[in-house]
Amino acid sequence: MSKFITAAEVAEVLSVSMSCAYKIVKDLNDELKKMGYFVVSGKVNRKFFEKKYLYEEG
Questions:
Q1: What residue numbers bound the domain in which 45 lies?
Q2: Which pLDDT tens digit goes with each residue over 27-45?
Q3: How far is Cα 45 from Cα 52, in angstroms, rounded to an integer?
């Protein structure tokens, strides 16, 4: 399993549209940038996504 989750995977996991998934990825990446991390467009760190949306501790 990749360390990054794509917008397509976000859409599937959360049962949302692709446009909504891209917005979620962008918002999460913006938050990571503010924390000083480098990000990859269209993908977000899987653990960060799970912590924010699936309530996983990590």
A1: 4-53
A2: 999 999 999 999 999 999 9
A3: 11
Residue 58 lies in a domain: no
Domain total in the chain: 1
Identify the residue whose tokens are 């949306």.
Answer: 53
The model's pTM is 0.89
C-alpha angle 6-55-29 in degrees, rounded to nearest 5: 40
**Nearby residues of 42 by Cβ (< 8 Å), 6 or more positions away:** 6, 7, 22, 25
What's residue 56's pLDDT?
55
| Residues whose CB falls within 8 Å of the CB of residue 52, separated by 6 or more in sequence, listed in order | 28
